[in-house]
Description:
By secondary structure, the chain is of the alpha+beta class. The strands form five sheets. It has a five-stranded parallel β-sheet, sandwiched between helices. Strands 7-6-10-9-8 form a five-stranded antiparallel β-sheet.
Amino acid sequence: MPDSQPAGPVLILTPTGRDAPCAQHLLTREGIDCRVCRSLDALCDVLDDATGTVLVADEALTRADTARLTAHLSNQEPWSDLPFVVLTQPISGPSAHRSLAEAHLPEVLGNVMFLERPLYALTLVSAVRAALRARRRQRQVRSHLAERIEAAERLAASEERMRMLAESIEDVFYMIDLERGALLYLSPAYERVWGRPAADLLVDRASVVDTLHPDDRATLLRAWEAQECGKPAVLEYRILRPDGSVRWVLDRTFPVAGASGRRAAGIVSDITDRKRAEAALREGEERLRLIVENARDYAILITDPQDIITAWFPGAAAVFGWSADEIIGKPGSILFTPEDRATGDPEKETNVACTEGIAPNVRWHLRKDGGRVFLDGQIVALRHPDGTLRGFLKISQDVTERRAAQEQLARSEALFRTLATGVQQLVFLSRPDGSRTWGSPQWIEFTGLSLEESVGFGWLAAIHPDDREQTRQHWAAAQTSDDYYVEHRVRRASDGAYRWHQTRARPFDPNSKATSEWVGASTDVHDLRELQEQQAVLVAELQHRTRNLVGVVRSLADRTLADSPSLDQFQDRFRDRLAALARVQGLFSRKEAGQKVTFDELIRMELTGLGAIDQEGHGPQVTVDGPKGVRLRSAMVQTLALALHELATNAVKYGALARPEGRLRVHWGLIDRGDNERRLRVEWQESGVVVPLGQGGEPLRQGYGRELIERALPYQLGAETQYELRPDGVRCTITLPISTRHKEIADA
């Protein structure tokens, strides 16, 4: 009977005789697949794992090089041991050399069966079938081995996945052999959670008891009893880490079914954070309960979806006056004022809360005694997990007193702003460090800075750059003095001019000046400051002029007394000279601060005082010409006036004005010097005068006036003078510096 599952083809190698054809015929007839090979190399070419067996004559092996065949056989798969059926010659026939070669064949071929020729056909077929059955069993072993290897690989992969999973999760995974009471596996997370080496626990499972909190050890032992009975267990216990810290863990253990004995597995999770959160939640709930029960100025209540009051807390009773027994079961609208109920405000608020989740509740409410209380709060819609409406939570604070204070404050602020915007001063509000929070319309109009530009320290942009540092320093000093005061210059937007302002500020609440808002105002003192400066200049000038005038009077008295032969003459001369000084002082008094006396005013005043010319500057004997507005230095006016007085007095008494035919010409003008300094040149020329001469032909007149011109003017005024007493009259030239502070000539 042919085999139902062929083990593979039979390769036949019999190089001599008719052994190959005969064997092929016999085996083919029995349904065995056969292939005849002509040489050992040809056999090696087709030899592979699919070959069932090899039928070979011994002479094909003993007469050929078997190295290639030997190499092929040594490289077989572990499951393969290819069977060989070797046809040998009878032992009595050949020589001993052939027997040695045959004896060596098992070492070359390995799995070999010898059949001595001649042999029966049945023997050959039986031997080949036996070899094929052996080959078939090898292939079955290979299949079983492959299945076991695959199963082992799958198991190893599964265990690797389990190991990777166990090592990648933060929880501790373990496996226990219940029969031996030993740990089979413990994930690395144990060392992170317990803070202890896993090796110690793998050696002695019971040592884990020592790592537990003493109060929780009995719990673990009960869980172990459940494990022994094959029951799952879930328990929470505390562990003690080596650093002294305590952590909570959740241990879930369960039996593991299998053929490898009774086992149990478990997963341990660190639930310390959850325990802390639960403790914090309980603490928060307790605080909330205490707050709700003790917050007497907060009205807290709960209503159902129809806005019927279902919960009434102590704060609500304190605010509204109703007790819980009196109010529970009544509609929430009972707390609203009649006018709000008439406009449907209670329903509007609950509708908004249903739609938006929350609704403001800021309004007047009604107390049990009919009084009113102003509440600031909100209504929150409460919902079930499925989203359906559960009711409303209403929380409101009694702010009646605060609202009254706010209204009073608003009235005060309105009054303040009315006053602040009605005065001329630049009013402002600021923080204690000087940063502005508000500026009056006057400030905005004067500086051109908007409110947005002025807030903070933006207002400093309107302060003169040279005054900004002291302005800020005064704010720092105000923190200890409760008063801010500074004088600085503020830019006026209309023309860009800086005007002096006096700024004062004080805190609203001196007792909390570090946090209180400050109010201040800036007053324009520019004109006053200029007047004060002018007054100071005038006082200084008055003092200076008084000292000079006293000196001049003293000098006049001395010189007049020395030149007067009698007291009567002294009196007349001294009176005239004092009159000249008085006229100069009168001219000074008519000038405004900063104005200078001009030469044309001075000469006309002197000649008019002596009657030589009229108020228009005309006289029958006098010619006066020169530019107007030539300003004189204040320090030289008195001395120059005395010199002109002496010239005019002498002209009236002895010179051109003493006789009708005499003439006087006074001419002045400006000359440029090489040192870029302009000077006033005055020419006094008399004519038509007969001057008496001395014995040597010299003019006899010589006195105080000439001495004043030739000595005092050069010494005191830096003037250049020339005085000549000619036979026909006096000729005098005076050149002196003039004022250059302003334009010298107002009208030339």
